[in-house]
Amino acid sequence: MLLDLLRALVRAEGVAVVVVGTVYALGCYLRRWQEEEAYRLLRQKLARAILLGLEFLIAGDIIRTVAVDPTLLNASVLAMIVLIRTFLSTTLQLEVEGRWPWQKRA
């Protein structure tokens, strides 16, 4: 019961991070929409919000799988979710920083 509540709170935090980050990114864009770099900055801020939100959502899934309902099916589903979200995180990081995570900074 308590772990279910914790899982729900962590997942809600993930959604809130994405929503607040999106609003923030759009606000920054609207203030600078005429500047040449405005669109690129919007994409970067939005990608950062999505990345952080994904981390919270993965944490919620891990809590559910490990502590709440540890079945082989749930572990398999978690593995697929983590694989997909890792791919998304990697491509978003490439978008934000302009380099792969394993590449050194210029």
Folded structure, characterized:
The chain is mainly alpha-helical. 83% of the residues lie in helices and 0% in strands. It is built from three helices and no strands. It has helices at 2-32, 38-68, 72-97. Helix 1 runs antiparallel to helix 2 and helix 2 runs antiparallel to helix 3 (72-97). The longest helix is centred in the first third of the chain and has 31 residues, at 2-32. The mean pLDDT is 86.
Task: Give a brief rundown of this model.
The protein is mainly α and 106 residues long.
Query: Unreliable stretches, pLDDT < 50, 5 or more residues?
Result: none
Give the count of helical stretches. Answer: 3
Question: How much helix is in the residues?
Answer: over 70%
Assess the beta-strand content as a share of residues: under 5%
Global outline: flat
Pairing-aware structural class of the strands and helices?
Answer: mainly alpha
Order of helices and strands: HHH
Mean pLDDT: 86
Biggest pleated-sheet summary:
none
Distance between the first and last residues' Cα: 49 Å
The value of Rg in angstroms is 17 Å
Say how many strands there are. Answer: 0
Write the layout of secondary structure elements.
Elements: H1 2-32, H2 38-68, H3 72-97
Helix pairs in contact: 1-2, 2-3
Structural descriptors:
106 residues; mainly alpha; 3 helices
